[in-house]
Amino acid sequence: MSEQWRDLVKEKKLRQQAAIPEAWIISPPPSSRLNVLELPEETGLLTPREVEITESHVEDLLPKLASGAWSAVDVTGAFSKRAIIAHQVVNCLTEIFIEQALQRAAVLDEYLSKTGKVVGPLHGLPISLKDQLAMKGFETVMGYVSWIGKYSEVDAALVEILVAQGAVPFVRTNVPQTLMWPETFNNVFGRTLNPHNRSLTPGGSSGGEGALIGMRGSALGVGSDIGGSIRIPSLFNGLYGLRPSYGRVPYRGAANSMEGQDSLPSVLGPLSTSLGGIKIFMKAVIDGKPWKKDPLAVNKPWDESSFALKEHNNGHQLVFGIMWNDGNVVPHPPVLRALEITRNALIEAGHKVVDWIPYKHKEIIINARAIWASGSQEDYVSITSLTGEPLIHTMSLEQDPLAPPSFRLTAAPKTAFQLWQLHKEKRNYRQEYLDHWEATVAQMGTGRCIDAIIAPGAPYAAPPHGKNYSADFTMIWNALDYPAMVLPVVKVDATLDKVRPPHQFLSEEDKTNYESYNPETFTDAPVGIQIVGRTCEEEALIAISEIADAAIKSFLTK
Amino acid sequence: MSEQWRDLVKEKKLRQQAAIPEAWIISPPPSSRLNVLELPEETGLLTPREVEITESHVEDLLPKLASGAWSAVDVTGAFSKRAIIAHQVVNCLTEIFIEQALQRAAVLDEYLSKTGKVVGPLHGLPISLKDQLAMKGFETVMGYVSWIGKYSEVDAALVEILVAQGAVPFVRTNVPQTLMWPETFNNVFGRTLNPHNRSLTPGGSSGGEGALIGMRGSALGVGSDIGGSIRIPSLFNGLYGLRPSYGRVPYRGAANSMEGQDSLPSVLGPLSTSLGGIKIFMKAVIDGKPWKKDPLAVNKPWDESSFALKEHNNGHQLVFGIMWNDGNVVPHPPVLRALEITRNALIEAGHKVVDWIPYKHKEIIINARAIWASGSQEDYVSITSLTGEPLIHTMSLEQDPLAPPSFRLTAAPKTAFQLWQLHKEKRNYRQEYLDHWEATVAQMGTGRCIDAIIAPGAPYAAPPHGKNYSADFTMIWNALDYPAMVLPVVKVDATLDKVRPPHQFLSEEDKTNYESYNPETFTDAPVGIQIVGRTCEEEALIAISEIADAAIKSFLTK
């Protein structure tokens, strides 16, 4: 096979490098330095005000931008600089268009100073975008050598809405080839690292977002999630992240993997340093009436009564189901500790917590994988064959071309009729799971079924590169189309998170997972949880997450 | 092939016959009598009060039932008797369970007399169900010999909701084998006829509903629509019928054809003698929170502000786009007259009517057909092969086994990946059509785009059996997922609907269609139109339809 694809990569990387302002180039720390979170400040490139700006949350930035206390140019400049520094240590960016962003910010500043009004609720907020969010005049490479030079003629619908609401896109972020990996590595831009510990993966497929926002190079970013791709990077980088229901956020015009695979689709959604960022994003997007731009967007306005938890006892004495494992794998000690903290915090705040019994999780996961595999190989090959770039077989540091290919690359294609049979199976599982949830009304004594599920987001904190074997804990909610929020809780702590004595293993996988734990491997890795709500009830899930987040914070600061 | 399947049919028909009360058996009119609408009264079996009841609309029946002026037993009895009479002349029923219905009605009467309250908004209303709406303990044959003896263990979710809201299911109605025909004939129950003119088809696939409600054997029935199957029988029988958006009405537990075909799915919806019936049905179903029973139901409560036309100038000075043909076929004179009446009526009522330019209708139809064909043949054969019943090749009166099979039976199966490519095509068409609609804002001068489309529902009134070749005029809206309402307008009139001079034919199909018209063939056939709204805006579409219906009625009675 010709190696000409390497020339394409070289040329693309040169163009990327040229987009980085020289003044912001740093001398890289030694690769032995694992935790680089403090590095942006240490460089001395950021002014104290730029540090203050970049360490602010979305809900604090927006009022300052709206009042003119901070200009959009200053805020965009600060995040741009910090993003570029971050990129040099964790390799999180793909497209860099700071100059255009600053021009746009200047227009916004002028508008505000002339009219006294903001353009929209996101006025002046820099926003980072996963490398699928096409923008007019820019390439959308999405981790494929074959897509270098693929310039978009229009903005993705979501970009249109965000810009109309006042946001300032300034960078795009790295992904794995095919998007169908929970880590972040491709033949064009290489591997993204976890800023908390560079020997660990930032997760994927929105791993560039996770690493960038983890380093405060952005306060709000857009990822996509087909099996955990927003939530895994959120968990692994100590962030908030929401996987919305199908169609709540418009996908039109974004590049994607396995386009036309509509059975169990990817969704776009936010990652942020704060829950405020998540809420503000969702409300701004939905208020932008995405169904007028994207026929697949759900026609459902933002529902204030759902956000006020009218059907959830107005947020008082909620009942949570807590899932300690998925019936197949028991999570590592730090994850169990995060769950224990959450349970205790919720009880202390006056809520009730009961055990959630997982229902056929393994069967549902197998069905989901089979659906994707029904045409995935043909999809991947149809793209990589354009340039002959190799299909990536593994996320491990050693890219051994002789390694046995992952299940992603060995699936036998199916017929449409066979796919229909998988759809029937999926529908039945979804019906049974809905009944399983609704049936809890009988035990609650509240007249309601449980208000939300607390669950692990992964069976471990961010693992070493190549070791993120399973996305089962996130994928289950995609298959069921339940919105799921990630909240950060703690960090791995060698003292508190000692190896626990072996339990009765639920599966071979469980044993392997148990044996893979020791606290040293996971030094500094953040640990979070998932909160899971009902289909298309993002508003309620956000409000319940606010309650849980406040309870956890109050519990931990005692 | 063994002919044992014929024994199954014989035995099933005997059981059906046994469910008919002997007192209601009539001596059939000669087959030369085409219009049988008045026959129920002529039999003398109906009391004057039963005639009054069965000629009442849903919105008039419900207050009388709620006040106790008419008992549920009386109302159920009256419709049952009329339904049985209808069945004997147009062959519209499948399952008949009048005894159970009367028992249920008696329970409702007792509840009302004891508590002074109704069970729900549909208290005591008999409701007919297409032969897909499974009910616990009953067979769901759905036109397949192979499904004789297939007893359901649970009610379909929609039946559960209707019953909880007070409705009284009393009969199920006939369908074509596979459901994928716009007429109504199968190997078990035979052919359903059009009561306006028995030489014509009542349409399909909800043809049993159409014929039954057309004869006032039911005031409200449930059909399903994947390409026109609610709307075509509504049009052909002079009824109101709504094809709701995907998932607005729950499908769970209903039998179906091509199960797992989720790309362009069938939806359930109402047919009724009045628009009031359609509205009452939709509100009662949505108020039943179908998303708590069916994971595929859209989580969207009934929207009063949409029904009040808040985004459509509160219903004043609406702007309609009128589509005279679909770019491929010009409808017959009676259909054009119905459109002309509608246009003139709307203008007279103070609204604006502009021409609607169809956008790639033929391409969209071809894509839809290819999607269904990707696995349909395997689906049909997997069912018919269970008993060896023949696959039906044609809807014509002569069931010639040597006739060339319809396109439905010759499609080559596709791979899942090929199906994905069709999905991409479909998504692009839907995006372009949405843009086409949104772009009208520029010409309207109202600040809004057009409020609804007026369109033909078929290129002809009810044609003779076997001659309903095309469902293109309805299928287009399924492919786009726009809700579409059928309103009756006039009947074919030999004086007014003369053959028009030939036009410049748009296609070979157009020429064939033109040549197939003469007013005599279509004697007494009703003629209606479609009104088309925006995805998931059923409330607005119903309100706009009320405005148009009132305008048409007022225009015609001048």
Automatic annotation (TrEMBL), chains A, B:
Top EC group: hydrolase
A single MF term (Gene Ontology): amidase activity
Active site (record annotation): K130, S205, S229
Domain of life, per lineage: Eukaryota
EC number: 3.5.1.4
Classification via SUPFAM superfamilies: Amidase signature (AS) enzymes
Domain spans labelled Amidase: 74-541
Keywords, ordered alphabetically: Hydrolase
Keyword match DNA-binding: no
InterPro entries in UniProt: Amidase_CS, Amidase_dom, AS_sf
Reaction catalyzed: a monocarboxylic acid amide + H2O = a monocarboxylate + NH4(+)
Amino-acid positions noted as binding substrate in the UniProt annotation, renumbered to this chain: L179, S205, I226, G227, G228, S229
Name of one Pfam family that matches: Amidase
PANTHER family, per database record: AMIDASE (EUROFUNG), AMIDASE-RELATED-RELATED
Family the UniProt entry places it in: Belongs to the amidase family.
Name of the protein in its database record: amidase
Species per Swiss-Prot/TrEMBL record: Clathrus columnatus
